Every structure is written in C-alpha cells, then in structure tokens.
Amino acid sequence: MPGHDHHDHDHDHDHALDPHAAVTEEERREFELLERSIRELLIEKGVFTADDVRRVIDRAATRTPADGARVIARAWTDPAYKKRLIETPKEAVEELGYDLGPAEPNLVVLEQSERVHYVVVCTLCSCYPRVLLGPPPDWYKSVAYRARVVRDPRGVLQEFGTEIASDVEVRVVDSTADMRYLVLPQRPKGSERLNESELSRLVTRDCMVGVTFPDRP
Which of 113, 125, 166, 207 is catalytic? Predict the structure, then answer.
C-alpha cells in the first residue's frame, strides 16, 4: 500500500542518530565479539576455513563504493544489463569483473521506483555488500541506526536529508549472514546526456544503501 512503511522487526531502543557520528568503543567491542564468535563457529562447523576468511578480508580491503557505482551506472545506460542485474545479480556483477564466488553471500538488487523506496539495514550486526561497497560506514554499524530505521524509517531518512513523499511506500530490508542487498536508485533527472563514467560519479555509497538519493548532475 503506498505510503505504508514495511519492516520485519521492532525494537525498544530510542537513540538519536547522527549519520556522521562514529560508533562508540562499547559498540565496537560488541561488533568485534559478535563477528569473532560467529566466524569461529562457522570455521568449526566447516562452512569455510580460516584461509577463506583471510582471502575475503584481503579482497574487501581493495573495494570502494566506486565499484558499486560502476555497476549502477551500467544498469542506468544498458536496459539489458539492468534486467540481468535484477534477475541474476551474481552473474551480472561478475560480468564487470567483481568476484562473487561461492564463499560470498547471495546478492539481491532492489530497484527504487516512483512507488517504492528501499532502505537496507542489518539489525544483528553489519552485514553489507562489501565486494561492491567496501567496508560499511560507522553509522550503518551503530546501534542507533540498526534499532531506529526499522521503527521509524522516514524519520531516520530525514536525518540524512532525504524526504520521501507520503504516497511512496518505504520498505526496510534486513541483511543476513547469507543475504546482501544492493539498492538500484532511480537515475537522476537531467542526466540524460551523461555517459557511463560521468553517471558513476553521481552514485554514492549511501544511495546504494537507500538512505539518500544519487547526486544531481
């Protein structure tokens, strides 16, 4: 239903959200403890090895939001590629040279529209499409964002300077250990004459998470 906000979780936290604020030391220790516990358990269960983890970390260290921006710009300029990106995102991303091998979580691409606006969160920790966006920002990992965006997505978006029309449905999607989401934002008006490289410079990390719109030309 237009104007209705969907999410799958509810929380009792009520923290103020500063998109530019760093996580606290307590939050950082919480993330590190959770990550280490899950990693050690999965290694013990044979889901992957310690060498697999090291390879993923090394590869992620070289990634930046410019990688995801390249994917988005290609989708904006090539309708056939856009269709493949939505229907078979792993294969489409690998066409551009990004390795989403069997050790990587599944990727789902969510297309923004005039009727639906998607916002991504990981309510448990900080699951995030690192292969395309690099390390997640501090605000994405913060307890404030994780707790509040599922409860009051429009309010949180306003704190990022993003106003969503009342007749647009806001859908909050929750990343998991085996599922990552990438938002495909709408192409900005006035960008019709820009080439793919120029378009990629309009695509920001935050718009691929859904908390902002792409830059205007």
Answer: 125
